[in-house]
């Protein structure tokens, strides 16, 4: 029986895998430096992060490993996880009333040891925020530890005026790409 390792501490990724009927045999949080390289483009960054997370976790020969990374991008600017309320405020002010990209990369390493990676690139547009809305959202704590300073599956969803792409990808694990990567790696998915 093939075993699955989730290289993530994200409860959201675990929940999303469950939507595929998949339960990892073990989860482990990779310890890597997530600092973007100088002039690194958001697409390159998120692909590199998923791969680095995947290869940072040891796996047995009979295990398939899955890792992912999500970033929010405004143009060439990468908005990772806000370090504090002040940075989260800056992020929310920056994406207020504008379209931005939410990129999630998934990397699966199968028994052959070869990493396979897919990228989901979605676009989200929020309404123009009022200062009180930003402050209330920061106060809710919902965006803590989230790329771009928000979680689409919570209160922030009420501010979305338009989106294109993968909703599950915006949440942190694009199910279509993930399912296909698991199947092509030999993991049984219904």
UniProtKB/TrEMBL annotation:
It comes from Parasphingorhabdus halotolerans. GO terms for biological process: nucleotide metabolic process. The keyword tRNA processing does not apply. It is found in: Cytoplasm. It is an enzyme of class 3 (hydrolase). This is dTTP/UTP pyrophosphatase. Belongs to the Maf family. YhdE subfamily. The lineage of its organism: Bacteria, Pseudomonadati, Pseudomonadota, Alphaproteobacteria, Sphingomonadales. Keywords: Cytoplasm, Hydrolase, Nucleotide metabolism. Its cofactor is a divalent metal cation.
